[in-house]
User: What shape does this take?
Amino acid sequence: MRIGIRYATRSDAGLLRDSNEDSAYAGSRLLAVADGMGGRAGGEIASGAAIEAMKRLDVDVPADDLLTALHEAVRQANDTVHGIAESDPSLQGMGTTLTAMLLSGSKLALVQIGDSRAYLLRDGGLFQITHDQTLVQILLDDGEITPDQAATHPHRSLLLQALDGREQLEPDMQLRTTQIGDRYLLCSDGLWSVVAGETIQRELSTITDPEQVVRELIELANAGGGPDNITCVVADVVDLDATTGRC
Assistant: This one.
C-alpha cells in the first residue's frame, strides 16, 4: 500500500476586498495556506513569497526528516520576507500567517504561524489541529472570555506572531500520523471566522470530491458576507494503489 493524497485548492477575494492577499499551494507532499497583511501590495507579496519559499519542499522527504525540513523552510521563508521588506521601504510592516503540512507515507509534519487553521476530519468528527496564535486565543485559554465573546472581540485579529522577517520565529510544530480516509482542511480566517464549524463539518463529511468541497466552502463564506479573502485547501489521504486521478 502506498499512502498519498488527493487534493484541491481555491482562493477568492471575498465580497468586500479589492484584492486577494491570500496565497496557497497544494501538491503531492506539501499543503500550505498563507494570509498576508501589511496593505494591499505588502500582504500579497508577503504571502506569495512565503508560499514560493515553501514550494521547494514538495519532494520526497524522508519521514525522519519532516520536522527539520519544514522548520528550515519556514526559516528561509522568513528570511525571504525580511529581504524583500528591507529592499523596499514601502513594504515595511508586511507579513503573513502560514499553515503548512509536509507528508511522507503515514507521517505528517505540521507548522503553524498566526491564525490560519488546519482541521482533520476523521471517522466523521472534525478536529481543529492547530492553535491560533492570537491574543483572543490566549484569553480563551485562560478562561477570561467565552467562545461567543471571542467571535466579536475587538482585538480578534491581533496576531501574537507572524512570518514578517522582523523577529525570531517560534512556530508551532507537530508530527502526526495519518490514516487512509483522513481528510484535511487548511484555510484562512476568511473561512473559519464566517462559516460555523458545524457547517464546515457537514460539507467535509458529505461531499466526496475535494474540488467541489473547496468551491462550496468559499460560496458559503461569501453567502455569509465575504468580509475577507477566503482560501481553502482540502486533501484526502488515500491508497494510491487503489485509486486513480490527481494525486
